[in-house]
Recover the amino acids of this structure.
């Protein structure tokens, strides 16, 4: 769908360069949305250490979006005047920007204001714009040529600072467009009802509640919190995004990353499971489309991982554990 055919080549860069000024003073009341948007919507920045993000700089006549950071607390050790902290707000290193809703990546490229991403949330003529990213976590594209789809809450980039800003303060600049970039509206009103996603850069502690997070589409780099599971012990829970049904619970005593990610490697097969499965023992080794499921992690000691897996199987009753392999009528080899 060609909602914004001019956003190709230097179009987005020109927009980011000339149209929004980060620290402009706000003026008269900005346009607001008449009602909520359809579908699932989440804040474009996840929680951090249990803290919800806030709007640090509102929409205004020369600031056609909102800036998102975290309110500074007395216990914060991030130095005021550093790229991570002002007197009132902070942003830690490595914080991800998240897709606010399901959609197609229309544009993802370098601009003078940092990396920027536009997501088309069709069929409605709604799009979101994210900038000041220091790294992309989606495939670079223009005019939606890659056709890459993202889910609400999926990491799309790492938040950085505006290279043209003298403060060089890390924050996400976020815009909501109705029909195109010339019709940006103040997202603050509807953001009050949007879901807050758990910290996408942290592991879930042993006794903490589960936080389910998307892991991207096939071919995307795994998010940092998945890569951090290497050499860890613990359990994982896989559930479907649309239905919220728990489909699988697994564990590892020291190779949690490899054990979890095999569920998304559809190319890997052992002939003992010729109907699209692989594995041994009680583990049917089911594989799942990455863009249709989300994952929760609980870190344990190596000796406790299996007991925790069995406890969660009894508690959550996952759909595919133990019963996931159909009885074969005849082996094809």
């Amino acid at each position: 769908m060609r909602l914004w055919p001019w956003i190709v080549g230097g179009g987005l860069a020109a927009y980011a360069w000339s149209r929004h000024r980060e620290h402009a003073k706000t003026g008269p009341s900005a346009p607001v949305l008449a009602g909520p948007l359809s579908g699932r919507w989440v804040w474009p920045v996840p929680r951090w250490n249990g803290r919800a993000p806030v709007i640090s700089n509102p929409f205004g006549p020369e600031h056609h979006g909102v800036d998102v950071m975290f309110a500074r607390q007395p216990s914060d050790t991030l130095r005021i005047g550093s790229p991570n902290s002002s007197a009132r707000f902070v942003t830690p290193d490595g914080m991800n920007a998240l897709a606010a809703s399901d959609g197609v990546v229309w544009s993802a490229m370098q601009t003078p204001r940092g990396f920027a991403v536009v997501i088309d949330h069709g069929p409605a003529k709604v799009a979101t714009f994210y900038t000041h990213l220091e790294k992309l976590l989606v495939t670079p594209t223009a005019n939606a040529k890659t056709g890459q789809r993202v889910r609400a809450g999926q990491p799309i980039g790492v938040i950085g600072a505006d290279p043209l800003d003298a403060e060089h303060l890390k924050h996400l600049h976020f815009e909501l467009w109705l029909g195109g970039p010339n019709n940006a509206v103040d997202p603050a009103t509807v953001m009050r009802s949007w879901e807050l996603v758990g910290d996408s850069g942290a592991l879930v502690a042993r006794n903490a509640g589960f936080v389910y997070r998307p892991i991207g589409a096939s071919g995307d780099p795994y998010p940092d919190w998945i890569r951090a599971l290497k050499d860890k012990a613990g359990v994982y829970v896989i559930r479907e995004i649309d239905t919220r049904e728990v489909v699988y619970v697994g564990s590892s005593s020291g190779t949690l990353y490899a054990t979890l990610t095999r569920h998304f490697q559809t190319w890997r097969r052992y002939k003992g499971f010729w109907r699209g499965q692989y594995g041994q023992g009680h583990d049917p080794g089911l594989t799942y489309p990455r863009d249709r499921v989300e994952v929760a992690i609980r870190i344990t000691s190596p000796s406790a991982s299996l007991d925790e897996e069995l406890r969660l199987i009894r508690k959550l009753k996952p759909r595919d554990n133990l019963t996931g392999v159909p009885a074969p009528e005849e082996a094809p080899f």
